[in-house]
Design brief:
- It is a single chain.
- The protein has about 160 residues and is mostly beta strands.
- Helix content is about 5%, strand content about 45%.
- It has a single domain, classed as Beta Barrel (OB fold (Dihydrolipoamide Acetyltransferase, E2P)), CATH 2.40.50.
- The protein is built from one helix and seven strands; from the N terminus they run E-E-E-E-H-E-E-E.
- It has a five-stranded mixed barrel with strand order 1-3-4-6-5.
- The longest helix has 10 residues.
Length: about 160
């Protein structure tokens, strides 16, 4: 069995770029910054940052394009994919490694908000989105979709 699974939690380094494929399906692309703190040989605390190219399709792309902005945190689950193409100007072969989102969850809202809704996808289009938000999300001026599962529906 082979495994290609990625989990990242970080902040957007730019606003998501939303566009449509010729088929009409939406695509959102953005960069995500993650950091790592460690101690070097001398015991000094060091911090490094990594930058990841992220791509979302379908309903997930719509949601990310609508609610996410530069600096906002997000948790993504997905797979690594490398694309290649021939550069028309230089004739060189170019490569781009990306994380293709399978599931994601918004991080806490800006300015101290406690939000954090989860959106999951099965396959390449987001069939049913689920959202759980505290009441104070409404105060931020963001209108989120209604939850599709209520606590009363859970059998335990």
């Amino acid at each position: 069995m082979y495994l290609n699974k990625v989990f990242l939690y970080g902040n957007l380094t730019r606003d998501p770029e939303l566009r449509a494929l010729p088929s009409g399906q939406q695509v959102a692309s953005f960069a995500l910054a993650t950091n790592r703190t460690y101690k070097d040989r001398d015991g000094n605390k060091k911090e490094t940052a990594e930058f990841h190219n992220i791509v979302a399709f379908g309903r997930q792309a719509d949601l990310i394009g609508q609610y996410m902005k530069k600096g906002r945190p997000i948790f993504v689950e997905g797979r690594i994919q490398t694309r290649s193409w021939d550069d028309k100007n230089s004739g060189e072969k170019k490569y781009r490694t990306e994380i293709v989102i399978e599931n994601f969850q918004f991080g806490p809202g800006g300015q101290g908000g406690q939000g954090g809704g989860a959106y999951a996808k099965g396959g390449d289009d987001a069939g049913g989105a689920r959202r759980s938000t505290p009441a104070d999300d409404k105060e931020e001026g963001i209108e989120y979709p209604e939850p599709s599962v209520s606590p009363e529906d859970i059998p335990f």
